[in-house]
């Protein structure tokens, strides 16, 4: 099974690396990072780079494609080279997936029309403008399309999908070996739980950017 993780300038690192750590442990998986050009691709802070060993054209028909999100996603929404590749790869993929605002790229490619999907909570409303049916769930499965909410939820998506691919026992084993047992020091990981004033600051853009 070939897994293709798409990279673009200013992607969010955990969006790509979280699912990579889980899905790359599927039996027989070949995981490749792809971009329009080979070489280092910088994340949203510019302080970390992942290497794309293959171009989009080098990987025309992955079994599973994964699109991360990040601030750089906005610059890709009309990139027909990327959107066209997503459509072509999706035509033969077994699974088409995204994390965070990566779902907006899938939607811009027309792949989520009429489908339930999720994204980062600040971007959910935008999904509807591209024909998807937005939901605030952490992981959403609609046929072969699997979308995850913001950043850390990509790990949950990876485990959910790994269970479908390799069985629950294998997924549990990977969860145990990666010691994924989150116990966050704060209970503010969603807009429903975080202080209302903090949520409003991000919604209005009055709070400083995290990047």
TrEMBL record:
BP GO terms, sorted: proteolysis
UniProt keyword list: Hydrolase, Protease
Domain DJ-1/PfpI: 2-162
Protein transport in keyword set: no
Domain of life assignment: Bacteria
CDD domains: GATase1_PfpI_2
GO MF annotation, one: peptidase activity
Pfam families: DJ-1_PfpI
Name of the featured protein: Intracellular protease/amidase
Source organism: Streptomyces clavifer
